[in-house]
Amino acid sequence: MKIPFIKAHGAGNDFIIIDKNIDIIKKSKKIIKKLCDRRFGIGCDQLILLKKTPNYHQVSFYNSDGTLGKNCGNGLRCAYKYLTEIKRYKKTVIKSQNFKHFGKKIGNNYEINVGEVSLDWKSIPLSKKMDTQNISLKNILIPGV
Questions:
Q1: Tens of pLDDT along 77-112?
Q2: Distance (Å, rounded) from C-alpha 88 to C-alpha 20?
Q3: Does residue 145 register a pLDDT over 60?
Q4: Cα–Cα dist 44/61, whole Å
Q5: Radius of gyration over alpha carbons of the chain, in Å?
Q6: Of 85, 103, 104, which is closest to residue 95 (Cα–Cα)?
Q7: CB–CB of 49/79 below 8 Å?
Q8: What is the side-by-side strand order in the sheet with 109-112?
């Protein structure tokens, strides 16, 4: 099966944007992982699936491990640029799980509202349990230093 896609980059993140055959892709974690694989697939931080509805473009984010992701500001900006510059939609509204996003172009840059942001440290998901009040900076490798 051929799947048309766009590869996009935003502020250090890279994305695959697909707006065709998304129902087939959504059903298969295996396909998502293959597409995101940097050695054997296209490679990306997140896969972005877009689906046009009469009033907006529904967006879904998938992490490279195949799991459903949450909002991504850089990904939303890339999707907005794709929809306005490549697909030429005039009044582009992108809807994530429960929020509508509106963007605009300022010079050569794109800006988009990302929804409600939580500053509650306890609500930020971490990959492992840790004491965030006493993080040691010892043994952290910084590339190029």
A1: 999 999 999 999 988 999 998 789 999 999 999 999
A2: 16
A3: no
A4: 12
A5: 17
A6: 103
A7: no
A8: 6-10, 13-18, 46-52, 57-63, 93-95, 100-106, 109-112
Residue 106 vs residues 73, 74, 85, 123, 135: alpha-carbon distances, Å = 16, 15, 13, 32, 38
Neighbours of 57 (CB within 10 A): 20
pLDDT of residue 120: 76
Beta-strand pair 109-112/100-106? antiparallel
Residues 6+ apart with CB under 8 A from 11: 74
How far does Cα 144 stand from its chain's mean position?
Answer: 27
The pair of structure tokens assigned to 77 is: 């900006």
DSSP assignment letter at 82: I
pTM (2 decimals)? 0.78
Rounded Cα–Cα distance for residues 114 and 105 (Å): 15
Residue type, 139: N
Task: Report how far residue 126's alpha carbon sits from residue 49's, in angstroms, rounded to the nearest whole number.
Answer: 25
- All structural domains of the chain, each given as residue ranges with its CATH number in brackets, are 6-123 (3.10.310.10)
